[in-house]
TrEMBL record:
Keywords: Flavoprotein, FMN. This is FMN reductase. The keyword Plastid does not apply. The lineage of its organism: Bacteria, Bacillati, Actinomycetota, Actinomycetes, Streptosporangiales. It comes from Microbispora corallina. PANTHER family: NAD(P)H-DEPENDENT FMN-CONTAINING OXIDOREDUCTASE YWQN-RELATED. InterPro entries: Flavoprotein-like_sf, FMN_Rdtase-like_dom, ISF_SsuE-like. It comes from the Bacteria.
Length: 223
């Protein structure tokens, strides 16, 4: 019996507002498809900023900061699909999401790219401006982690200002629903391919660590 697929969504908003409403909509789409969906609200976890140690580029083991970030990373590693969802603040990505992608990427994900070949979806929420820039930044981060990014035709951008406005953007929510549906379709295709071939790593990713300045043999000793 195959396990139920799971999507983990990272909510980078500081509030229980429009971004959370969009993810609740995404969760309803996943539920209709029989897929587990968990939203991790970064505002509710203990997350330190990058520390003063400055040895990230030389480390071959996980970050030593003691907070909730590694637990969130482990949820992502255990999932089949990942959604990054963040609002636009100050014409850029909300600071909670920015802190998370820095901490997670440098401290935990860069060693062997454990998110490789997971299915990714990106959602940006904005009043009007810079949704595309935030969507692009989060997409590049998913590609950096060698995830398989699916879309909805148009990027999943939802326009909202006041609490509740996201529910009024029918086109934006349609694009989010299409994205989630396509994520689930891709997860199903990958799982079926794994079942038929017996291969876990269905798409070759080559050398999983592209860091500069550290010998590959040294890295392998610690992985």
């Amino acid at each position: 019996m195959t396990a139920t697929p799971k999507i983990v969504a990272i909510n980078g908003s500081e509030r229980d507002g429009n971004t959370a409403d969009v993810l609740r909509h995404a969760a309803s789409v996943a539920a209709e498809r029989g897929v587990d969906f968990e939203a991790v609200d970064l505002r509710n976890i203990r997350m330190l900023r990058c520390g003063p140690c400055g040895d990230c580029n030389d480390r071959t083991i996980r970050c030593e900061q003691t907070d909730d970030v590694p637990g969130v990373v482990d949820k992502m590693i255990a999932a089949d699909g990942i959604i990054y969802a963040a609002p636009v603040h100050g014409f850029g990505t909300a600071s909670l999401m920015q802190t998370f992608i820095e901490r997670a990427g440098v401290g935990y994900l860069r060693f062997d790219r454990p998110l490789a070949n997971k299915v990714a979806g990106i959602v940006a929420v904005a009043r009007r401006y810079s949704a595309g820039e935030v969507w692009a930044q989060l997409t590049v981060n998913a590609l950096l982690n060698r995830m398989i990014v699916v879309g909805s035709g148009f990027p999943a951008e939802v326009h909202a200002l006041h609490r509740g406005d996201a529910a009024k953007d029918e086109e934006g929510l349609t694009n989010v629903a299409r994205m989630v549906d396509r994520m689930i379709d891709m997860i199903d295709l990958l799982n079926e391919h794994r079942r038929l071939t017996g291969r876990r790593d269905v798409l070759g990713v080559g050398e999983r660590n592209e860091r500069v300045g550290l010998a590959l043999d040294e890295l392998r000793e610690h992985l």
